[in-house]
Amino acid sequence: METTNVIDPSPPLGKPVKSNGNKYLLCIVAVLIVLFLIYFLMNNSQPPEDCTGLFTDDVMFYYTPNCPYCVKQLEIFNENGIINNISTCDLTDEDCQKSFNDLGGKGVPYFVLKSDNSVTVSGLNSDMCNLATKLNLRN
Prior knowledge:
Glutaredoxin; 4 helices
């Protein structure tokens, strides 16, 4: 009588079954860790730029006390320690109103570089580096 070898597909008792699912899970976890590290390094690689030192009394800031954008701009200047470095002009004062009109100012908040009256910026500016660039205070 001839014997036939039958291969039993079940693993021997006590031995773990190898699965490709574990390899895929490890690959997914590794990719997620790498992506997190890339994100973290890109977002925390440099401290934010400080442009507050660029503001001097050459910058004139025109405002009115009842303008909410002007009040917010003054708060931003106070938070950044700029308010004591620049010149301010309250448009409720007649002399300020006259110089504002002479510059062709149309609305507030309004910024002008006193050394070059052609350099003006209007509107609320929360980014001090962006404002410094608009006023040609930085290269």
